[in-house]
Amino acid sequence: QVQLTESGGGSVQPGGSLRLSCKVSGFGLDEYAVGWFRQVPGKEREGISCISSDYDDSTYFADSVKGRFSISKDKNLNTVYLQMNGLKREDTAVYSCAVPDAPSDFSCSAYALRVAMDIFGKGVLVTVSS
Predict the structure, then answer these.
(1) Cβ-based neighbour number of residue 69 at 10 Å
(2) By CB neighbour count within 10 A (0-12 exposed, 13-18 middle, 19+ buried), where does 127 fall?
(3) Can you give the three-state secondary structure of the chain, one letter per residue?
(4) Is the dihedral of CA 91, 115, 31, 26 positive or negative?
């Protein structure tokens, strides 16, 4: 059974950093891509980052986070990390990780985030405020 558990959310001042973790179970990160999404109440969910399976080890970042966020994975710990630096007030949202419902042989992209992610974690709240 596929399970995704996010952690690392919290409150931080503008300019600060947080690292989110997505612990996965029921599958291996060598076979599955993992995406990160965020959602503000009343707004559409936004796909912000993705790391592919061992298919090509590609990564993707939305323009809104490019240059500030990075993504990595530890296959031994079955965990994907989203390092968020230079946080802005507009980064305040609930952040969730997600995976496809089958092994993933594709490169990460905005399109992959939009159509390929089927199973979502419950999410964690990130609040950027002074």
Answers:
(1) 21
(2) middle
(3) CCEEEEECCEEECCCCCEEEEEEEECCCCCCCCEEEEEECCCCCCEEEEEECCCCCCCEEECCCCCCCEEEEEECCCCEEEEEECCCCHHHCEEEEEEECCCCCCCCCCHHHHHHCCCEECCCEEEEECC
(4) positive
User: What long-range pairs does 39-42 form, CB within 8 A, spacing at least 24?
Assistant: 39/93, 39/94, 39/96, 39/123, 40/92, 40/93, 40/94
Site of tokens 């990595």 = 72
Rounded mean pLDDT for each run of 10 residues along the chain, 130 residues in total: 95 98 95 97 95 94 98 97 98 98 92 96 97
